[in-house]
Amino acid sequence: MRRDDLYITVPSPFRCPISLDVMKSPVSLCTGVTYDRASIQRWLDSGNNTCPATMQVLQNKELVPNRNLQRLIQIWSDSVARRQVDAELAAPSSVDVPSQDQVKLLVKQLDNNCFSSLTKIVWFARESEENREFLARMDGFLNAVFDFMRNAESDIKLIEQIVRIMDLIQSKILDKKPLLESNCLSTILLVLQRGTLESQIQSLRLLESTAIDGESKLKIAEKEGLVVELVKSLNKEKDQRLIEASLSCLSAIIKPKRVKTKVIQYRIIPELKKLLSEPNMSVLIVEKSLKLLETLSFCKEGRVEIRHDSILLQAVVQKVLKVSNKSTEHAVTLLWSVCCLFREEKALEAVVSSSNGMTKFLLLMQSDFSSAIRQMSADLLKIFRVNSNSCLSSYDTKTTHIMPC
């Protein structure tokens, strides 16, 4: 199996006209030219009042997120990342991908020269959907892999190959209960702590695919050290693909009340606030962060922490109608939960003091969003009106019936 050298050509519309780098957070000026937020903000903060590309005098300095371009950049970036992984894991030109009969022999010989055998099995699995189906249904293969995970020692390279194989065939595995055993979870935790970026992302996808019911979610969350590592992976300095995978995994396990309480204890809400406050985060990260906060807002411990954080609440208001439809829906539901359903007074004050909040909720009432979102926006709008009449304490809204957990 041969592979060509990987050349990456960046489409010119994806480059910032100032830095010439791929834009992380594309925003447009009133002139219609799009820049990376960090670059154009520095230009404006330096006292300039012109568009760098056209030199037109700016009628206003508002930066409007270019969501369509950001989505295109995200799709392109994901594609490049996948190609890089494919290139790293592809079989060298001097080695042929093993046949099905050869794979059967490799599985029998896993105890001898294990790393080499696992590497060839990875090449085989990457070759086609048919090969992955073959591995998942092959007698004794999954048992052998599970045994390796149960008995894995500290050889991180070997463990990464095992996780890589499991990630490749995880959609074909009918019974994932062995992955919930303590030793198997310990192996996945080791990869999160010491593995490469790609193997960390693969282990998170594997965990997410395993969290299929309440029992599996609890087993994952109760594995010592695992939730801590998931929250650590949300650090804004981490690779955005790792952050996205961690957010997805946390969303998959967070439904049980005990899990919500645990992630709150490990300070997930401050990490989510940092992600929302960072201007260069991807649309997916914003959407998933707001979704997690929305889920936590229906838990008493989560509401208590959210209501006391005015900066977080104002950041949530700022995301309304700014990022994507999903982000707006999660943000509105979160704000409605703490302000209207549970009527947290400190949260009310923070939302009322946010800029452009009234305008946003007024626009949402007249938008094409679902009737539930429009009604929640109407409820939130009443907060501003009641506050302007100095009768916040008598606020009484007609709310949609959603029961807290």
Structure keywords:
mainly alpha, 21 helices, disordered C terminus, 3-stranded antiparallel beta sheet, 405 residues, disordered N terminus
How would you briefly describe this protein structure?
With 405 residues, the protein is mainly α.
Describe this structure in words.
Keywords: Transferase, Ubl conjugation pathway. This is U-box domain-containing protein. Functions as an E3 ubiquitin ligase. It comes from Hibiscus sabdariffa. Its EC number is 2.3.2.27. By secondary structure, the chain is mostly helical. It contains 21 helices and three strands. It has helices at residues 37-45, 67-89, 100-108, 114-127, 129-137, 141-151, 156-169, 182-194, 197-210, 214-222, 226-232, 240-253, 257-265, 268-277, 283-297, 300-307, 310-319, 325-341, 345-352, 357-365, 371-388; strands at 26-28, 34-36, 64-65. It has a three-stranded antiparallel sheet. A hairpin with a 5-residue loop joins strand 1 and strand 2. Helix 9 (197-210) runs parallel beside helix 12 (240-253). The radius of gyration is 25 Å and the shape is globular. The N and C termini lie far apart (53 Å). The model is unreliable at 1-5 and 390-405 (pLDDT under 50).
